[in-house]
From TrEMBL:
Keywords: Isomerase. GO terms for cellular component: cytosol. This is dTDP-4-dehydrorhamnose 3,5-epimerase. The gene is rfbC. Transmembrane segments: none annotated. It comes from Flavisolibacter ginsenosidimutans.
């Protein structure tokens, strides 16, 4: 595995190093010792899988607030998505900056998302599948979200939006006095 820091501190793009032979390939995508080198010491307590049917659909932007903030690691195993994170850490030098990257079944990249970030993605193809690893349990009372099109974030989504969940249509817009999570 190769860990490449993104412009938002403590978040990483992770590339696999597959062993290839005539049968196919084999790759490790988590190893406690290697992840400790990037400061990851928590346990994954939940793993989720989503399928999104339609190109252009957005899911996000989601996060959990204290004391249920969580690290997430995401990986696309079918299709291709534009994956976006937003730094919501109070006092961070990159507060409210976003970073986007294509994750696909073909490039096998993963994104490591520290606590204090919002996360979302747009499907670049039909039938995209994502795997998520979480360090906290799903806690509906701690769930929160940002609007994908918040003018204070100005995220450059690559495609017109074809579908959003009713919940994602209703997240509040940020205000100038937002101090972070
Ligand atoms: C996120 C989540 C949802 N659910 C339930 C609640 C709801 O009935 C149904 C669908 O939930 P949602 O509409 O919130 O799913 P979705 O909009 O796909 O939420 C996901 O979005 C991406 C961007 C993320 O980063 C994920 O962590 C997660 O927040 O699944 C769980 O049981 N466990 C979970 O961990």
């Amino acid at each position: 595995m190769n860990f490449t820091p993104t412009p938002l501190s403590s978040s990483y793009l992770i590339d696999l190093n597959p062993f290839q032979d005539e049968r196919g390939w084999f790759a490790r995508y988590f190893s406690k010792d290697l992840f400790e080198q990037i400061g990851h010491t928590k346990e994954w307590v939940q793993m989720n899988h989503s399928v999104t049917y339609k190109k252009g659909t957005i899911r996000g932007m989601h996060f959990q607030v204290k004391p249920y903030r969580e690290v997430k690691m995401v990986r696309c195993i079918a299709g291709s998505v534009y994956d976006v994170i937003v730094d919501l850490r109070e006092g961070s030098p990159t507060f409210l900056q976003w970073y986007g990257v294509e994750l696909s079944a073909a490039n096998r990249r993963m994104l490591y998302i520290p606590e204090g970030f919002a996360h979302g993605f747009q499907c670049l193809a039909d039938n995209c599948e994502l795997l998520y690893h979480h360090t906290e349990f799903y806690t509906p009372a701690a769930e929160a979200g940002l609007r994908y099109n918040d003018p204070l974030l100005n995220i450059a989504w690559p495609l017109p939006v074809t579908l959003l969940s009713p919940r994602d249509e209703k997240h509040p817009y940020l205000t100038e006095d937002f101090k972070g999570i």
